[in-house]
Amino acid sequence: MLAALAHSALMPRNAAVLPFPAEPAQHTRQPGPQVMNFAQDSGIYEEGDDATYFYKVVSGVVRTCHFSADGRRHIDAFYHVGEIFGFELASEHRFSAEAVTDCVLLPCHRHGMEEAAALDGVAIMHLYTYAMRQLDRARAHSQLLGRCNAMQKLGVFLLELSARKGDAEIELPMTRQDIADYLGLTVETVSRTIAHLEKDGVICLMRARHIVVKDRDRLEDLAA
Amino acid sequence: MLAALAHSALMPRNAAVLPFPAEPAQHTRQPGPQVMNFAQDSGIYEEGDDATYFYKVVSGVVRTCHFSADGRRHIDAFYHVGEIFGFELASEHRFSAEAVTDCVLLPCHRHGMEEAAALDGVAIMHLYTYAMRQLDRARAHSQLLGRCNAMQKLGVFLLELSARKGDAEIELPMTRQDIADYLGLTVETVSRTIAHLEKDGVICLMRARHIVVKDRDRLEDLAA
DNA sequence: CGGATTGTTGATTACTTTCAACAATGGTGG
DNA sequence: CCACCATTGTTGAAAGTAATCAACAATCCG
After folding, report:
1. Does the C-beta of B173 come within 7 A of strand D?
2. Could you tell me the CATH number of the domain that includes residue A120?
3. Do B99 and B29 belong together in one domain?
4. Are residues A92 and A152 in the same domain?
5. By C-alpha distance, which of A57, A106, A52, A48 is closest to A78?
């Protein structure tokens, strides 16, 4: 069991990885019949739905979000290939989930996971590790929202996307509105801030959704 | 094991409870020699310290925080009696912890916990439950920081304190600066917003640290 | 009592939002 | 294949909210 912990420590910091269901599904060119397809902007589940299933992203990007009484949307997180979302402690989902792009998802039955955990110490250790990683992510996000101005928020956001891809060239899967709702800004501010970064030569805006990080150091200074 | 899950579901939503160490310590009038005392504003651990110990609050209030390069402080969370803080996935603490008031804390050895978890399915289930509860808390905080104005932030903050105590009369253990750093505001804005709430008759400011919620409904409307 | 800390209040500034208009893009059907 | 329309993104001007700078009041300790 402690070996499982040690192993976890070696995994990438923010990865949302669970060992179930079996990995093969994401490696096959033709995903088995157990995967589901979701069109861009379609809902996967809604806040308050029974959390019977959680999902692993096989391809595409997913957002989890919450709508407040006055109609404003808060995006809690984006989930990329290989990541897990929708796993809850409570019986209901606390956020809605929607497809940012066309997606292939692998739905996993929650009770299956819990039964596996009951039988298998390693499985539950993974559950725990998953929860703690998500926690780190959520805390980092709180810090970003609480302490930073628009420029810093965008800086961190772009650096994260770039780091995830391991490349200075970023293809944004989400709209400006998505970015705004994730960073606690408005579309206009996101747009203006990106324009400002381009004017300063920190990034190059090839197309609206295609950005190249020109000066990573300066971006990191901003994001500090 | 599933019984343990069901039990967890009955516990208060945001409680940060772990079964270790044994509960008796918090019930004795004279805590045993294993507890530690911390004076107000003293540091418990610093960001980057080895996360050898985590802590349970026996009395007092603790804040976990992070200092950014430009000297600004972000308070991640406040921990009250019975709650656990400083439990990490990584080997180092990601935040500093400080005593908001004079505190009595019960330090717990991390490896002790992990060994217990390795041997005991219920123990690790509690670990998992703890992590997921903290996650809910962190996500709610992100939402608050990302989507709300000063008035709404203060509304939610005061309602939480009031709910925790189960009383409309609140004794604030923290300074305005603490509140500001927790809500992503400045001291001045916190002070002004509280004054505004008082002028509107929503709260009554007995002393700076002693607030009575006069009109809970209106406060909830603000906080929505 | 006196000094330091904490909290309040006022005036000004800065940043972000809001409102508005327009440009670019992408998908669809003729 | 192109034109058209809806969606998405950008930019400008004005307004609003919170931050900053500054001064003062209240409170807490020694």
Report:
1. no
2. 2.60.120.10
3. yes
4. no
5. A57
Q: Are residues A136 and A164 in the same domain?
A: no
Q: Are A43 and A80 within one domain?
A: yes
Count CB pairs under 8 A between chains A and B. 120
- Give me the percent of chain A exceeding a pLDDT of 70: 85
Closest chain A residue to B149, measured at CA: A184
Strands laid side by side in the A62-67 sheet? A43-45, A96-99, A62-67, A73-79
CB contact under 8 A, A124 and B129: no
Same domain, A58 and A112: yes
Per the CB < 8 A criterion, the answer to whether A21 and A31 are in contact is no
Same domain as A218, residue A184 = yes
Q: Mind listing the pLDDT tens digit for each residue in A105-138?
A: 999 999 888 888 877 778 888 888 999 999 999 9
Higher pLDDT, B23 or A37: A37
| pLDDT band at residue A30 under the 50/70/90 scheme | low
B131 touches chain A (CB under 8 A): yes
**Domain match, B19 and B87 both:** yes
Measure CA B75 to chain center: 10
Of the candidates A88, A64, A187, which has an alpha carbon nearest to the alpha carbon of residue B142?
Answer: A64
Our count of domains for chain A comes to: 2
Measured in degrees and rounded to the nearest 5, phi and psi for residue B63 equal -120, 145
Segment 46-85 of chain B within 8 Å of chain A by CB? 66, 68-70, 72, 74, 76
* A11 Cβ under 8 Å from any chain B Cβ: no
In this predicted structure, the answer to whether residue A202 has a pLDDT above a threshold of 70 is yes
Which of A145, A178, A193 marks a domain boundary? Answer: A145
Domain hosting residue B136, numbered range: 2-145
Nucleotides of D under 7 A from a protein CB: 8-13, 17-22, 27-28
A9 to chain B, any CB pair closer than 8 A? The answer is: yes
Instruction: Report whether pLDDT(A179) > 80.
Output: yes
pLDDT over threshold 50, residue B7: no
- Provide the pLDDT for residue B24: 38
| CB atoms near residue B73 (< 10 Å) | 17
**Is any atom of strand C within 7 angstroms of residue B175's beta carbon?**
yes
**Is the pLDDT reported for residue B14 higher than 80?**
no
Angle between helix axes A121-147 and B176-183 (nearest 10 degrees) is 110
- Are B138 and B205 in a shared domain? no
Q: Which of A116, A145, A174 is the last residue of a domain?
A: A145
